[in-house]
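batch_manifest entry 22 of 60
target: YhfH family protein
source organism: Psychrobacillus faecigallinarum
requested by: lab member K.T.
priority: normal
notes from requester: please return tokens only, no post-processing; we will run our own comparison against the previous entry in this batch. if the run fails, retry once and flag.
--- input ---
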Amino acid sequence: MLENVLEFFRNLPKKKCATCGEPIEEQHECYGNHCDKCNNL
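--- output ---
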């Protein structure tokens, strides 16, 4: 059962930036939807 859950998460597509569409380098605690280039902090 645990293998099925791990396989599910491995098969998720990479998160993409909402502005430019480039893949986002994610961290486990990050819920952002913009890449570093497009992030306007």
